[in-house]
Structures are given as C-alpha cells and as structure tokens.
Amino acid sequence: MFLEIESLLTPAEVTRMQALARELRFVDGRATNPANVTKNNLQADQGDPKYQESTQIVNAALARSREFVDYAMPKRVAPPLLCRYEPGMKYGAHADSAYIQLAGGRLRSDVSCTVFVNDPASYDGGELSLTLGTRTVTFKCAPGDAIAYPSTTLHEVVPVRSGQRLVSITFVESYIADPHQRTTVYELNEIAALEGLSMKWENRVRLDVVRQNLMRMWAK
To answer: Which pTM does this prediction carry?
Structure first.
C-alpha cells in the first residue's frame, strides 16, 4: 500500500527548496550506494553548510503531516536528501536497502518517501515507477507533494529525457516493521477516524481495544 500526500510542503517551503537546489553543491549519487550500477543521479553534498537547512525543511513537514505519521508510524526518520536528475539520468529498478547507515548508527528502512520539489512540466520523463504485482504505477507529482510506500517495493526512476528533476528522499524506521501488519493498523485507525462518531459507544470501545492491542503486539 502506498500513500499520496498533497501539499506536504508549503509554497514557501517549495520555493526555498528550489533555491537551495541552485545553491547547494551536488555530488555523484552513487556515493551512498556504490554497488548499484543502475543508479545515475546527483545528490546534495552532505558537507555543504546549506545541506542541513534542506533536511530541516522536509523533516518539519513530515513531522506535522498527520497523514504521513498515521501511515508510516515513524520511530526514526533518516535525514531527507535532496536529489537531482539531469537528462539521461535514472535509477534502475531496485528495492531500498534494509538498513541505512547514519551518523548515529543504522536505521532499518520500512517506509520510503519521495517529496517532489519542482514543477513536473519542467522536465520530461523522470517518473517514479512502483511495481505492484504484475502492474506498475507511475508518479510525477506537483511540487510539494509526496509519495510514501513500503521500502520493500520494487521501484525505479525512469530516465529523464529533458529538463531537471528535483526530489527529496528519506527512509523511515516504523514502530511496526511488517508492512501487512502496519497496513492493518492503519486501516483500522482510518475506520475509527471516519466512522467512530457514528458507531455505538460499546462498538467503538471494542474497536479501540483491538487497535491498541495490535499496536502492543506488533510495535517494536
């Protein structure tokens, strides 16, 4: 199950992220995944003084997004990384690494998130493509929108044919690692939020007991 989040970033945050993309130094994207020969992109130099500002903007947006928090159930979130794709660049089909090395240790990647930074009309190609069973679903979203999906999902960024693609990516260690269990709790929480006020009180209580007991059983 994936989640589309509209307007995760405010217009002002989008404008600032676009400005930072012009000001930051970028390095070869394979610096963080040298073993993947299909990865061909650029990413913000984490040694650049302005890198921290780009991570803080996206982190703050994720933290205040009820949609994101309810879906991902984040325990830890990796520092978001601004990435750039020029014509001919792509990221071939892959699932994200199970563990992401951070300065303070390793983070287990349960949920991956892509935040779109620039206008999709400004570049040709560059869609995010998720493989779901025998089908693929592609995304090329408005600036400030985001897509979150299980890190186990086979996905790719198709080649950019012209223009420049800007995104910020991050990985989440969830309180519930198993995607099926996490989706079950998410769906029950959504039902409680949408239908709870119209349910008989005793039925609402029973539903809440199930939700909380599943969290106790599955959360780590």
So the answer is: 0.92
Same domain, 124 and 194: no
Q: What is the residue range of 204's domain?
A: 179-218
For residue 91, what is the domain's CATH number?
Answer: 2.60.120.620
Pair 169, 211 in one domain: no
Alpha carbons 220 and 213: distance in angstroms, whole number:
13
What is 71-112 written as a DSSP string? HH-EEEEPPPEEEEE-TT-EEEEE---SEEEETTEEEE--EE
Question: pLDDT tier at 59 (50, 70, 90 boundaries)?
Answer: very high
Contact 167, 119 (CB under 8 A): no
Pairing of strands 42-44, 26-28: antiparallel
Q: What is the CA radius of gyration of the chain?
A: 18
162-209 pLDDT, tens digit per residue, is 999 999 999 999 999 999 999 999 999 998 888 877 888 988 899 889
Residues 102 and 186 grouped into a single domain: no
How many structural domains is the chain composed of?
2
**Contact in structure between 85 and 120 (CB atoms under 8 Å):** no
pLDDT band at 25 (very low <50, low <70, confident <90, very high): very high
